[in-house]
Protein backbone atom coordinates (compact mmCIF):
# COMPACT_ATOMS: atom_id res chain seq x y z
CA UNK A 1 0.00 0.00 0.00
CA UNK A 2 1.35 3.43 -0.92
CA UNK A 3 1.89 6.09 1.74
CA UNK A 4 0.08 9.41 2.16
CA UNK A 5 0.42 12.41 4.45
CA UNK A 6 -2.86 13.69 5.85
CA UNK A 7 -3.17 17.17 7.37
CA UNK A 8 -5.23 16.67 10.53
CA UNK A 9 -6.50 19.82 12.23
CA UNK A 10 -8.88 18.38 14.81
CA UNK A 11 -11.94 19.53 12.88
CA UNK A 12 -14.65 17.52 11.16
CA UNK A 13 -13.40 18.20 7.64
CA UNK A 14 -9.91 16.84 8.22
CA UNK A 15 -11.33 13.88 10.15
CA UNK A 16 -13.50 12.85 7.21
CA UNK A 17 -10.58 13.40 4.85
CA UNK A 18 -8.39 11.16 7.01
CA UNK A 19 -10.93 8.34 6.97
CA UNK A 20 -11.31 8.70 3.21
CA UNK A 21 -7.53 8.52 2.74
CA UNK A 22 -7.34 5.42 4.95
CA UNK A 23 -9.39 3.50 2.39
CA UNK A 24 -6.50 3.59 -0.10
CA UNK A 25 -3.27 4.57 1.64
CA UNK A 26 -1.00 3.90 4.58
CA UNK A 27 -1.53 7.25 6.28
CA UNK A 28 0.71 9.50 8.34
CA UNK A 29 -0.94 12.40 10.15
CA UNK A 30 0.62 15.85 10.29
CA UNK A 31 -0.70 18.27 12.93
CA UNK A 32 0.25 21.94 13.26
CA UNK A 33 0.38 23.98 16.45
CA UNK A 34 0.59 27.48 15.01
CA UNK A 35 -0.45 29.62 17.95
CA UNK A 36 -4.19 29.28 17.36
CA UNK A 37 -6.50 30.40 20.15
CA UNK A 38 -8.41 27.15 19.77
CA UNK A 39 -5.47 25.09 21.04
CA UNK A 40 -7.92 22.28 21.76
CA UNK A 41 -7.72 21.58 18.01
CA UNK A 42 -4.29 20.04 18.53
CA UNK A 43 -5.34 17.62 21.27
CA UNK A 44 -8.40 16.63 19.22
CA UNK A 45 -6.20 16.01 16.18
CA UNK A 46 -3.89 13.78 18.20
CA UNK A 47 -6.83 11.82 19.60
CA UNK A 48 -8.24 11.41 16.10
CA UNK A 49 -4.93 10.05 14.80
CA UNK A 50 -4.72 7.60 17.71
CA UNK A 51 -8.30 6.47 17.13
CA UNK A 52 -7.53 5.94 13.45
CA UNK A 53 -4.43 3.96 14.40
CA UNK A 54 -1.95 6.02 12.42
CA UNK A 55 1.42 7.61 13.14
CA UNK A 56 1.22 11.30 13.95
CA UNK A 57 3.76 14.13 13.85
CA UNK A 58 3.11 17.51 15.47
CA UNK A 59 4.94 20.62 14.28
CA UNK A 60 5.12 23.86 16.26
CA UNK A 61 5.28 26.68 13.72
CA UNK A 62 3.86 29.50 15.86
CA UNK A 63 3.70 32.70 13.81
CA UNK A 64 5.08 35.60 15.89
CA UNK A 65 3.64 38.21 13.50
CA UNK A 66 0.08 36.92 14.13
CA UNK A 67 -2.20 38.67 11.57
CA UNK A 68 -5.51 36.88 12.21
CA UNK A 69 -8.39 36.85 14.66
CA UNK A 70 -7.50 33.20 15.21
CA UNK A 71 -4.04 34.20 16.46
CA UNK A 72 -4.17 37.75 17.86
CA UNK A 73 -5.29 37.88 21.50
CA UNK A 74 -6.23 41.52 21.00
CA UNK A 75 -8.63 40.73 18.15
CA UNK A 76 -11.97 39.14 19.03
CA UNK A 77 -13.15 36.20 16.97
CA UNK A 78 -16.16 37.63 15.12
CA UNK A 79 -19.61 36.14 15.36
CA UNK A 80 -21.24 34.86 12.21
CA UNK A 81 -23.12 37.55 10.33
CA UNK A 82 -23.11 36.08 6.84
CA UNK A 83 -20.35 36.82 4.41
CA UNK A 84 -20.61 39.49 1.72
CA UNK A 85 -19.63 38.17 -1.69
CA UNK A 86 -15.85 38.25 -2.13
CA UNK A 87 -15.00 39.46 1.40
CA UNK A 88 -12.22 37.59 3.20
CA UNK A 89 -12.92 37.40 6.96
CA UNK A 90 -10.69 38.34 9.87
CA UNK A 91 -10.24 34.66 10.65
CA UNK A 92 -8.07 34.22 7.54
CA UNK A 93 -4.53 33.21 8.57
CA UNK A 94 -2.03 34.63 6.06
CA UNK A 95 -0.73 31.93 3.70
CA UNK A 96 -1.65 29.16 6.13
CA UNK A 97 -2.28 26.42 3.58
CA UNK A 98 0.83 27.35 1.61
CA UNK A 99 2.85 26.78 4.78
CA UNK A 100 1.04 23.59 5.74
CA UNK A 101 1.28 22.03 2.30
CA UNK A 102 4.96 22.90 1.96
CA UNK A 103 5.78 21.06 5.18
CA UNK A 104 3.59 18.16 4.11
CA UNK A 105 5.20 17.83 0.68
CA UNK A 106 8.66 17.87 2.30
CA UNK A 107 7.54 15.12 4.67
CA UNK A 108 6.06 13.15 1.78
CA UNK A 109 9.23 13.32 -0.30
CA UNK A 110 11.32 12.24 2.68
CA UNK A 111 9.35 9.07 3.39
CA UNK A 112 8.40 8.31 -0.19
CA UNK A 113 4.70 9.13 0.20
CA UNK A 114 2.78 9.52 -3.02
CA UNK A 115 0.10 11.95 -1.84
CA UNK A 116 -0.82 14.72 0.57
CA UNK A 117 -4.47 14.94 1.65
CA UNK A 118 -6.01 18.19 2.88
CA UNK A 119 -9.62 18.68 3.98
CA UNK A 120 -10.27 22.00 2.28
CA UNK A 121 -13.59 22.69 0.61
CA UNK A 122 -15.01 25.60 -1.32
CA UNK A 123 -18.73 25.15 -0.57
CA UNK A 124 -20.16 26.34 2.78
CA UNK A 125 -16.75 27.79 3.61
CA UNK A 126 -15.29 31.05 4.87
CA UNK A 127 -14.15 32.43 1.51
CA UNK A 128 -10.47 31.84 2.26
CA UNK A 129 -8.42 32.15 -0.96
CA UNK A 130 -6.24 29.17 0.00
CA UNK A 131 -9.27 26.87 0.15
CA UNK A 132 -10.29 27.37 -3.46
CA UNK A 133 -9.77 24.84 -6.22
CA UNK A 134 -7.81 27.38 -8.27
CA UNK A 135 -5.26 27.65 -5.47
CA UNK A 136 -4.73 23.89 -5.30
CA UNK A 137 -4.38 23.66 -9.08
CA UNK A 138 -1.64 26.29 -8.91
CA UNK A 139 0.06 24.61 -5.96
CA UNK A 140 0.15 21.31 -7.84
CA UNK A 141 2.10 23.11 -10.55
CA UNK A 142 4.55 24.39 -7.91
CA UNK A 143 5.07 20.85 -6.60
CA UNK A 144 5.58 19.54 -10.12
CA UNK A 145 8.22 22.14 -10.93
CA UNK A 146 9.88 22.70 -7.55
CA UNK A 147 10.53 19.25 -6.08
CA UNK A 148 12.79 16.30 -6.81
CA UNK A 149 9.82 13.99 -7.22
CA UNK A 150 8.31 16.44 -9.67
CA UNK A 151 11.52 16.78 -11.66
CA UNK A 152 11.60 12.99 -11.92
CA UNK A 153 8.07 12.93 -13.30
CA UNK A 154 6.26 11.64 -10.20
CA UNK A 155 5.24 14.70 -8.19
CA UNK A 156 3.56 14.27 -4.82
CA UNK A 157 -0.17 14.41 -5.50
CA UNK A 158 -2.20 17.07 -3.66
CA UNK A 159 -5.56 15.46 -2.92
CA UNK A 160 -8.65 17.49 -1.92
CA UNK A 161 -11.40 14.84 -1.70
CA UNK A 162 -14.07 17.06 -0.14
CA UNK A 163 -13.34 20.25 -2.10
CA UNK A 164 -16.81 20.38 -3.65
CA UNK A 165 -18.83 18.86 -0.82
CA UNK A 166 -21.29 20.82 1.29
CA UNK A 167 -20.94 20.58 5.05
CA UNK A 168 -24.06 18.40 5.13
CA UNK A 169 -22.49 16.02 2.63
CA UNK A 170 -19.27 15.93 4.68
CA UNK A 171 -21.23 14.86 7.76
CA UNK A 172 -23.02 12.18 5.75
CA UNK A 173 -19.75 10.85 4.34
CA UNK A 174 -18.24 10.81 7.82
CA UNK A 175 -21.16 8.82 9.17
CA UNK A 176 -20.78 6.32 6.33
CA UNK A 177 -17.09 5.88 7.14
CA UNK A 178 -17.56 5.68 10.90
CA UNK A 179 -15.74 8.92 11.70
CA UNK A 180 -15.76 9.57 15.48
CA UNK A 181 -17.15 13.10 15.27
CA UNK A 182 -17.21 13.26 19.09
CA UNK A 183 -13.43 13.67 18.95
CA UNK A 184 -13.53 16.70 16.65
CA UNK A 185 -13.48 20.42 17.45
CA UNK A 186 -14.64 23.19 15.13
CA UNK A 187 -14.98 26.34 17.26
CA UNK A 188 -12.58 29.19 16.49
CA UNK A 189 -12.55 30.37 20.12
CA UNK A 190 -10.40 28.97 22.88
CA UNK A 191 -13.07 28.01 25.40
CA UNK A 192 -13.86 24.67 27.03
CA UNK A 193 -17.07 24.35 25.02
CA UNK A 194 -18.06 25.60 21.54
CA UNK A 195 -19.06 29.27 21.51
CA UNK A 196 -21.97 28.57 19.16
CA UNK A 197 -21.65 31.97 17.47
CA UNK A 198 -18.50 31.97 15.34
CA UNK A 199 -18.70 31.12 11.66
CA UNK A 200 -17.23 27.65 12.12
CA UNK A 201 -19.72 26.78 14.87
CA UNK A 202 -22.60 28.00 12.73
CA UNK A 203 -21.53 25.98 9.70
CA UNK A 204 -21.14 22.87 11.86
CA UNK A 205 -24.50 23.29 13.58
CA UNK A 206 -26.26 23.69 10.24
CA UNK A 207 -24.45 20.67 8.76
CA UNK A 208 -25.56 18.26 11.48
CA UNK A 209 -29.08 19.73 11.53
CA UNK A 210 -29.47 19.33 7.75
CA UNK A 211 -28.03 15.80 7.95
CA UNK A 212 -30.71 14.99 10.53
CA UNK A 213 -28.35 13.78 13.26
CA UNK A 214 -27.28 15.29 16.61
CA UNK A 215 -23.79 16.74 16.95
CA UNK A 216 -22.07 14.43 19.47
CA UNK A 217 -19.90 17.28 20.72
CA UNK A 218 -23.01 19.12 21.91
CA UNK A 219 -24.95 16.15 23.25
CA UNK A 220 -28.23 14.53 22.41
CA UNK A 221 -30.15 17.75 22.44
CA UNK A 222 -28.12 19.37 19.68
Descriptive key words:
five-stranded parallel beta sheet, 36% helix, 7 helices, alpha/beta, 222 residues, Rossmann fold, globular, single chain
Describe the structure in your own words.
Helix 1 links the parallel strand 1 and strand 2. Helix 1 packs across helix 6 and helix 6 crosses helix 7. By secondary structure, the protein is of the alpha/beta class. The chain has 7 helices and 5 strands, in the order E-H-E-H-E-H-E-H-H-E-H-H. Strands 3-2-1-4-5 form a 5-stranded parallel β-sheet, with helices on both faces. The longest helix is centred in the middle third of the chain and has 16 residues. It has one domain: HUPs (Rossmann fold). The radius of gyration is 17 Å and the shape is globular.
User: What is the share of helical residues?
Assistant: 25-40%
Give the total of domains: 1
Number of strands: 5
CATH architectural designation: 3-Layer(aba) Sandwich
Q: Segments where pLDDT lies below 50 for 5+ residues? A: none
- Helix-strand string: EHEHEHEHHEHH
Question: Largest sheet, described in full?
Answer: 5 strands, parallel
Strand order of the largest sheet: 3-2-1-4-5
**CATH topology title:** Rossmann fold
Average of per-residue pLDDT values = 94
| CATH class category | Alpha Beta
Which geometry do the CA atoms define?
Answer: globular
The N- to C-terminal Cα distance equals 39 Å
H/I helix tally:
7
Describe the structure concisely.
The protein is α/β, with parallel strands linked by helices. It has a single domain (3-211), classed as Rossmann fold (3-Layer(aba) Sandwich), CATH 3.40.50.620.
Amino acid sequence: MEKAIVLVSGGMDSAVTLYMAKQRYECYALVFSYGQKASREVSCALRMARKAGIECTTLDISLPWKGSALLDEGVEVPGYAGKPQGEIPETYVPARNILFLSYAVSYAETIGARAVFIGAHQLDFSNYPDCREAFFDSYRDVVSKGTKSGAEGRPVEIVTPIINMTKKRIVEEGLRLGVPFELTWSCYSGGESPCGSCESCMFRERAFREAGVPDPVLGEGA
